[in-house]
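User: Thanks for the earlier help. One more: Ig-like domain-containing protein. Can you show the sequence and predicted structure together?

Assistant: Of course, both are below.
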Amino acid sequence: SFPKPSISLHPSRRVTLGAATAVRCQGSYWNAQYQLYKDGNPTAMGFAEPAGHVAEFPFPSVSQADAGSYHCRFRNKWYRPTWSHPSDPVELVVAGEGPGSDPSLPRPSISLSPTGVTPPGANVTIRCQGPGRDVRFFLHQGGDLNQPLPMEPPGDEAEFHIRPAGRQHGGNYSCSYRLRSEPFISSAPSDPVELVVADYTWSNIVRLALSSGVLLAVVLILAEAAH
């Protein structure tokens, strides 16, 4: 049989209600026929015969019913009995932002411990809290909603630990959650919190002050020499 095709979601795998997206399936041959399947349904939900080797299955206005895991397969147009192996799955996660969002999925809250400026090497806990007990939380860094980090344990509150914190961990964080009974339906993200990692110890402050003083002295010497 043919090798399995690749599958991807464009523009992203996390789509807001009513937005447009498309599943793309790419095989290794031209003049092929493609089928798209949604997990849990043995019947193909889409069929395409692209001119090239990439088939596109559009979703012009995503609804919660479209959420789920998809895979595709292809076969040679002129040798129909043999289908390729199925692709790896791609997840279409429908987020709760926008008109028509589910009122039962309000935004979660997020907090940092400790608060304020965090020195390098300290332990940081990011805590996310939602409205129900049977949910799973996901952490998003820097506004990237497509690469979430799972937070444990499932429940009405979850924590993500950074041990130890470094400057690379600084930035904005938000979280979202999904019902365990609906793993592809997501809440809107929480408001962001900012983690600031900086060395504000007295020794570092003195070092900065001394370096600033040396720089000021050099500027004054150069200014005097110019006159």
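User: Great, one quick takeaway?

Assistant: The helical segments are 202-226.
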